[in-house]
Amino acid sequence: xxxxxxxxxxxxxxxxxxxxxxxxxxxxxxxxxxxxxxxxxxxxxxxxxxxxxxxxxxxxxxxxxxxxxxxxxxxxxxxxxxxxxxxxxxxxxxxxxxxxxxxxxxxxxxxxxxxxxxxxxxxxxxxxxxxxxxxxxxxxxxxxxxxxxxxxxxxxxxxxxxxxxxxxxxxxxxxxxxxxxxxxxxxxxxxxxxxxxxxxxxxxxxxxxxxxxxxxxxxxxxxxxxxxxxxxxxxxxxxxxxxxxxxxxxxxxxxxxxxxxxxxxxxxxxxxxxxxxxxx
Length: 280
Description:
Elements: H1 2-19, E1 23-28, H2 36-51, E2 55-60, H3 63-72, E3 79-80, E4 83-84, H4 88-112, E5 117-121, E6 128-132, E7 141-147, H5 149-157, E8 161-165, E9 167-170, E10 175-178, H6 180-191, E11 195-200, E12 215-217, H7 218-226, H8 234-246, E13 251-256, H9 262-267, E14 275-278
Parallel strand pairs: 1-2, 1-11, 2-8, 5-8, 6-9, 7-10, 11-13, 12-14
Antiparallel strand pairs: 3-4, 6-7, 9-10, 13-14
């Protein structure tokens, strides 16, 4: 048992050395954000990344929590093409849940595990600016037009971990709810992050044979979609990764957040546990 632990540490060392000083943007959501035990493990992993010289940036969702509060408040909710239709009342609830309850819980968990986290809304300092998505039927849902990376870099440089809620100021003066996956991808691209890590509730991208694809080239994704190998909710996730890679991210990862220490296993081991998407 002891030799296995030592081997694990030795396997991690080259990766720790390689990535020291780099930026990892992590989209945090799904079961990893719902189950109490996984919340703590995620917080430990993020704190460890910072300790070894990597600069994690957390962008989180919170859809299930928003849905529960909307139901409690008897505010009707519906989705169009996977996006929550957001009127002014829904936006108020989304901002309250994301920027308040969820964001501060994540910050507390990281702080409790020895890290130093600071919670931000995309509206803070106009960190995120957005415009309304083309589909006006979804209401106050936006897409990011700019990211003030200086805010994130300043926080990271002073030893803190930024935790960002995907609510943005609009170029038209309104506020907008942003899909957390696309917000994280846009932030990763703006930062030219070394890695964009997307935590999901599936093992990764699966091939036609039903087995996990460990390494996938960006150029191969379109064919997988055309051949109906990649379908459903995985399409926007790999598309998000593709856009991040086009924007300057070095590598993207789709990882099963239901696995304890998923991030560490993916980036600090030779085999990884999810799907790594490269820009080739």
